[in-house]
Amino acid sequence: MKHAFDARHLHIAAFAKSEGTHAGEERLSHFERLMEQSQGLGGETLVTYSVQGSMQLDAAGAEEPWLHLQAQATLSLVCQRCLGPVDEVVGFERDFRFVASEALAEVEDEESDEDVLVLSKSFDLLELIEDELLMATPLVSKHEVCPTPVKLQAADPEFAELPQEKPNPFAVLQQLKKKDAG
Predict the structure, then answer these.
(1) Could you give the CA distance from residue 43 to residue 39 in angstroms, rounded to a whole number?
(2) Do residues 82 and 66 touch, judged by C-beta distance below 8 A?
(3) Is the pLDDT of residue 2 over 60?
(4) Buried b vs exposed e over 8-24: b needs ≥16 C-beta within 10 Å?
(5) What's the pLDDT score for residue 46?
(6) How far apart are the C-alpha atoms of 162 and 158, rounded to whole Å?
(7) What is the pLDDT of residues 12-71, one digit of tens each?
(8) Is there a contact between 64 and 99 (Cβ–Cβ < 8 Å)?
(9) CA angle (72, 77, 82) in 5-degree steps
């Protein structure tokens, strides 16, 4: 029997025990913080994801729920060279282990390769996907080759250039000294 799972209210333990799998797509417009990151552009773009649950033994031999999650989206960001829009494919693939309390999660997360989260009966998987995509977003986005020439000088070509050589202020004193001596 195949279970129907709701990504907004995922029962982690039941999903992991049944070795559930779920794949889905959501419009970017359903992710408020990703929309902010992409300057409100691309709301119809799809965020695709897949998740697989499993139970694995911990060091003490007790079973713990795990999720293997991957997601991908194309975000419209601002090129830091030409300041025009640039589409960046952002994605991640990560394992998450769930424990009983926040205190335990905090301690074990420091020592683990996987991310450790607190177990809940109603977990918002889409919020986790949004968090991870935001962390995967490049700090500086730019085109490989910008579609418009990049202005590399800030000087105005119409502006008259100053003489390259400035007069030595001591040369004037030297001339005054020569007049007084003469």
Answers:
(1) 10
(2) no
(3) no
(4) eebbbbebbebebebeb
(5) 95
(6) 12
(7) 999 999 999 999 999 999 999 999 998 888 889 999 999 999 999 887 788 999 999 999
(8) yes
(9) 140
- At residue 143, the 3 state secondary structure works out as coil
Report the first-to-last Cα separation within the chain, whole angstroms. Answer: 113
Backbone phi, then psi, for 155, in 5-degree steps? -75, 145
3-state SS class at 75: strand
Question: 76 Cβ partners below 8 Å, 6+ apart?
Answer: 38, 39, 41, 42, 45, 85, 86, 87
Residue whose structure tokens are 């309390």: 101
pLDDT value of residue 162: 59
Identify the residue whose tokens are 């408020």.
Answer: 32
Angle (CA) 13 19 23, round 5°? 100
Rounded-to-integer distance, Cα 63 and Cα 57, Å: 4
What is the SS3 assignment for 55? strand
| Burial (0-12, 13-18, 19+ Cβ within 10 Å), 97 | buried
